[in-house]
Amino acid sequence: MADESSSLPPVAAYENVKEFMSVLMMVSTTDGRQFCGTLMATDRDRNLILSEASEQLPVGFQSRRGDRFRYVGMIAIPGKHILRIDASKDSLKAREMLLKGVSRGAII
Question: Domain Sm: where (predicted)?
Answer without folding.
Answer: 15-87
